[in-house]
Specification:
The chain has 106 residues and is mainly alpha-helical. It contains 4 helices and 3 strands; from the N terminus they run ααββαβα. It has a 3-stranded antiparallel β-sheet with strand order 2-1-3. A hairpin with a 6-residue loop joins strand 1 and strand 2. It is elongated and about 70 Å long. The two termini are 42 Å apart. It is found in: Cytoplasm; Nucleus.
Length: 106
């Protein structure tokens, strides 16, 4: 007898998932840190706190941060710094845009 009911071979879907997980940038390392901090194009962080320069992905998260860290200062959404507007690339490229996860899969 060779084994239990579980097959010993991997399916094509499982192998493709492993290859995709190994080759797609998930946000770790120096590139992921730059993306999280918003150094290149704003990254995931869209708003920056005008008081302490902490970044947040949306206005609601920034409001929560402001209430927790700066309770004595009044919250004004118009004072928030929009990193996507200030750091957006100005030149438009004619290259095709990548697929769902950043690759040219067909």
């Amino acid at each position: 007898m060779t084994g239990k009911a579980k097959p010993k071979k991997h399916t094509a879907k499982e192998i493709a998932a492993k290859v995709d997980a190994a080759t797609t940038n998930r946000g770790g390392g120096k590139a992921g840190q730059a993306d999280r901090l918003g150094q290149v194009k704003g990254g995931h962080a869209k708003f920056e706190c005008p008081h302490c320069k902490t970044t947040a992905p949306d206005a609601k998260s920034m409001q929560i941060h402001h209430e927790a860290r700066h309770p004595k200062l009044p919250y004004d959404e118009s004072k928030l710094i929009n990193l996507h507007a200030s750091l957006a690339p100005e030149t438009s490229s004619s290259k095709p845009k990548p697929g769902i996860r950043g690759s040219f899969k067909k």
